[in-house]
């Protein structure tokens, strides 16, 4: 009897213990829903990453039964180290896979379709799931608000369970712009994310898994799909203060979450320094939300004022633009404000600003405590004009680099994740926060390999250059143009190396035919097995110097022309600096292919041909990582590589190319107003009739691919000091340039 009792007691004790463990599990679960506990734990996580959460939190670490608890905790505690499997990434590189579409998933929202298409345009895209590092669902997760009706995909969890490779979300990336619903707008997705990474707009510090999730901006359906677009010129905004110190135009909610901040705004309205326009109109039946006559009258008056102001002009005319939280933490205003080069004032206390893992927003935004709204005006008055201008410019640069199209947003998201997996190939913080930014660094390049960030460099630019001669013709005698060209290169002091890129089906001539290099200079013959035209812009390991003078084999250049071009390039290493120039223009009469290419002589140009131009080697690396569709076009036509290079360089640098003093031989003589192909011996490779038509097609194709025309028109030409001036020769640094003619 006693014995049974004792065992019974033991049973009860075990039962109680099990209950206790269960309780702990649920306790942990319920904590997950509420931020408070997490915030404490999160802040501790940063300092002591080695402490195991399970042991600490529950004090039951010794029990095997906590397995399920661990699993639940894990997805909230996810970091790359514990929830992401990088084996495939290390093996196959950073490859992103998108699941095939299925009929039953319904139609994709415009935004999700743009995201998927952007991913497909990156070099990371793969169609082979077994080499995937990141997997992307083709079930639309953009809008997880059930009130959104058709955009909300029902039974999401059920669909996930149909995907055999879902594996509790491991190595998946889920995109979301809207989550939660009326009335409290909790950031609920309506399915278990598991170990999947979340790229989400309006994410709060409570939900954000630092170093694992990505905070996105919110963008509208009209946001461009492709290309880098510039913000409204921030530089032109001087004096930097606009007509209005601060402004806001938007809805105010009569009730519910987000209403407090927006409702407070109209107290700041004075119609000149501070323009705060709010309307009660939102949803249907908003009138019913007004408790009394006074409220209705106030709304009517506000609506009238609201309708008087144009939103975009207001943004353009304001120094600071308010970005208060709405129902959710983020709003379209953030991007719109940056686009108009207005300084965003963020009023959304818990919001993790977009891409804040890499972007230092303190330099371009003001983050203001929602509760201190009434003190905002004074604070903004005190910001100095110089700081305002700097913030505007930095904000505008961030906009064009990372936010100006869905392409840029998606590329930035992927780049952040790629850098977490390959920290050894990541861009430093200063690169992220300056132009041209981290998206312009191909993974194997360091900032010191680029023409940018000069002030951060240990070493300045090389003071010599490599000449790379693309050779498509045999060298029958030592009178061939290429021999003369090489001789002139040897006479140019700054030329340190000549590489002949042999892209001719016939074998090269005997070694003795090449003019021998003077002391301290080197000569190299590179034979190409694959005669692809894109290879002439390849960053060969053998290229010794930062600057590459790209040449056609039939070019004739005088040593002084070359020396002057190189000295000019040293001042503009981020641009293409060269001799023959061309121009693009649009003929609006043709809707489908409006872009035209012309070689007509004129004061304007936007292209400098790579048949005789100096280009930083960095651009050769970038050129080879351009989307394969564009490189294929170039190789299929065996043409247009120079146009593409000009597109790329202007896109990255935001600058036109530079044309330097040139000899008469490059001139095109034509009286016709329509563009004429250039004919003539020396121009032959640059333009003959068939090539010319192809070049028009290329240009329209590239514009399509880029989503914009990055080419920039210019009228600037650089000549040596005293060029053509009637002064003594001895006074001129480049006296022969004046007289060179052939
Ligand atoms: C914490 O982990 C890191 C990397 O795993 C290790 O280098 C470091 O020594 C650990 N610190 C402690 C206190 O164990
Ligand atoms: C997919 O990738 C795996 C791993 O690299 C490879 O073995 C397989 O052949 C690839 N399949 C296809 C269809 O390319
Ligand atoms: C800016 O405000 C001034 C004064 O209110 C007005 O005259 C001007 O047209 C506005 N500019 C724009 C671009 O809206
Ligand atoms: C072409 O130029 C005209 C005026 O020169 C301009 O109005 C039009 O917007 C341009 N078209 C494109 C596609 O940029």
What does this molecule look like?
By secondary structure, this protein is an alpha/beta fold. The chain has 3 domains: 75-216, no CATH class; 233-401, Rossmann fold, CATH 3.40.50; 465-723, Spore Coat Polysaccharide Biosynthesis Protein SpsA, Chain A (Alpha-Beta Complex), CATH 3.90.550.10. The protein is 33% helix and 14% strand. It is built from 22 helices and 24 strands. The strands form 5 sheets. Strands 16-15-14-17-22-18-23-24 form an 8-stranded mixed sheet. Strands 2-1-3-5-7-8 form a 6-stranded parallel sheet, with helices on one face. The chain has a 5-stranded parallel sheet with strand order 10-9-11-12-13. Helix 7 links the parallel strand 1 (96-98) and strand 2. Helix 7 (110-121) crosses helix 15, helix 14 packs across helix 15 (406-421) and helix 20 packs antiparallel against helix 22 (689-706). The longest helix has 32 residues, at 2-33. It is globular. It starts with a helix and ends in a 24-residue tail after the last strand. Mean pLDDT is 84; it is low at 24-73 and 666-686. Bound molecules: 2-acetamido-2-deoxy-beta-D-glucopyranose (4 copies). One 2-acetamido-2-deoxy-beta-D-glucopyranose binds at residues 243, 313, 316-317. It is a single-pass type II membrane protein. This is Oidioi.mRNA.OKI2018_I69.chr2.g7324.t1.cds.
């Amino acid at each position: 009897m006693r014995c049974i009792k004792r065992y019974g007691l033991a049973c009860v004790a075990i039962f109680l213990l099990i209950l206790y463990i269960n309780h702990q599990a649920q306790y942990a679960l319920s904590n997950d829903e509420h931020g408070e506990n997490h915030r404490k734990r999160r802040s501790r996580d940063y300092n002591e990453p080695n402490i195991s959460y399970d042991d600490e939190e529950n004090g039951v670490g010794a029990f095997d039964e906590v397995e399920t608890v661990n699993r639940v905790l894990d997805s909230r505690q996810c970091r790359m180290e514990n929830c992401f499997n990088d084996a495939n990434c290390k093996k196959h590189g950073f490859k992103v896979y998108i699941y095939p579409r299925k009929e039953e998933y319904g139609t994709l929202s415009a935004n999700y379709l743009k995201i998927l298409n952007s991913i497909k345009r990156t070099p990371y895209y793969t169609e082979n799931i077994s080499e995937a590092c990141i997997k992307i669902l083709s079930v639309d997760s953009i809008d997880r608000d059930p009130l959104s009706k058709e955009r909300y995909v029902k039974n999401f969890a059920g669909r996930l369970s149909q995907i055999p490779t879902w594996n509790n979300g491991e190595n998946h990336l889920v995109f979301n712009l809207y989550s939660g619903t009326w009335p409290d707008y909790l950031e609920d997705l309506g399915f278990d994310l598991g170990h999947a990474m979340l790229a989400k707009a309006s994410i709060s510090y409570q939900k954000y898994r630092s170093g694992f999730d990505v905070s996105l901006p919110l963008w509208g359906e009209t946001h461009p799909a492709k290309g880098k677009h510039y913000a409204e010129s921030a530089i032109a905004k001087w004096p930097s203060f606009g007509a209005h110190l601060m402004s806001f135009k938007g809805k105010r909610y009569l009730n519910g979450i987000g209403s407090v901040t927006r409702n407070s705004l109209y107290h700041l309205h004075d119609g000149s320094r501070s323009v705060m326009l709010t309307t009660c109109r939102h949803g249907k039946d908003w009138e019913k939300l007004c408790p009394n006559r006074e409220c209705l009258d106030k709304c009517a008056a506000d609506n009238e004022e609201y309708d008087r102001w144009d939103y975009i002009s207001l943004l353009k005319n304001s120094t600071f633009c308010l970005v208060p939280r709405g129902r959710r933490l983020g709003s379209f205003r953030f991007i719109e404000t940056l686009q108009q080069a207005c300084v965003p004032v963020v009023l959304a206390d818990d919001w993790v600003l977009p891409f804040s893992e890499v972007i230092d927003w303190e330099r371009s935004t003001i983050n203001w405590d929602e509760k201190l709204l009434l003190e905002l005006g004074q604070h903004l008055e005190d910001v100095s004009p110089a700081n305002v201008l700097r913030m505007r410019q930095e904000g505008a640069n961030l906009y064009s680099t990372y936010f100006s199209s869905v392409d840029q947003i998606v590329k930035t998201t992927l780049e952040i994740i790629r850098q977490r997996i390959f920290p050894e190939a990541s861009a430093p913080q200063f690169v992220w926060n300056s132009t041209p930014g981290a998206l312009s660094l191909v993974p194997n390049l360091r900032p010191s390999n680029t023409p940018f960030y000069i002030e951060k460099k240990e070493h300045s630019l090389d003071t010599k250059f490599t000449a790379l001669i693309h050779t498509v013709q045999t060298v029958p005698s030592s009178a061939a143009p290429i021999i003369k060209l090489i001789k002139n290169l040897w006479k140019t002091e700054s030329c340190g190396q000549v590489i002949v890129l042999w892209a001719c089906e016939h074998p090269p001539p005997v070694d003795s035919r090449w003019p021998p290099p003077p002391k301290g200079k080197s000569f190299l013959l590179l034979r190409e097995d694959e005669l692809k035209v894109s290879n002439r812009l390849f960053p060969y390991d053998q290229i010794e110097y930062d600057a590459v003078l790209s040449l056609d084999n039939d070019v004739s250049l005088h040593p002084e022309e070359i020396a002057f071009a190189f000295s000019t390039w040293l001042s503009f290493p981020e641009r293409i600096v060269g001799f023959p120039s061309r121009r693009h223009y649009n003929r609006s009469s043709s809707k489908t292919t409006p872009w035209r290419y012309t070689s007509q002589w004129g004061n304007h140009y936007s292209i400098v041909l790579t048949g005789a131009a100096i280009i930083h080697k960095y651009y050769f690396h970038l050129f080879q990582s351009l989307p394969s569709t564009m490189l294929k076009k170039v190789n299929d036509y065996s043409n247009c590589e120079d146009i593409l290079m000009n597109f790329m360089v202007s896109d990255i640098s935001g600058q036109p190319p530079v044309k330097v003093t040139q000899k008469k031989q490059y001139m095109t003589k034509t009286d016709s107003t329509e563009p004429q192909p250039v004919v003539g011996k020396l121009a032959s490779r640059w333009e003959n009739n068939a090539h010319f038509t192809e070049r028009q097609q290329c240009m329209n194709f590239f514009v399509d691919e880029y989503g914009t025309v990055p080419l920039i028109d210019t009228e600037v030409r650089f000549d040596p000091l005293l060029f053509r001036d009637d002064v003594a020769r001895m006074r001129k640094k480049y006296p022969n340039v004046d007289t060179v003619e052939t």
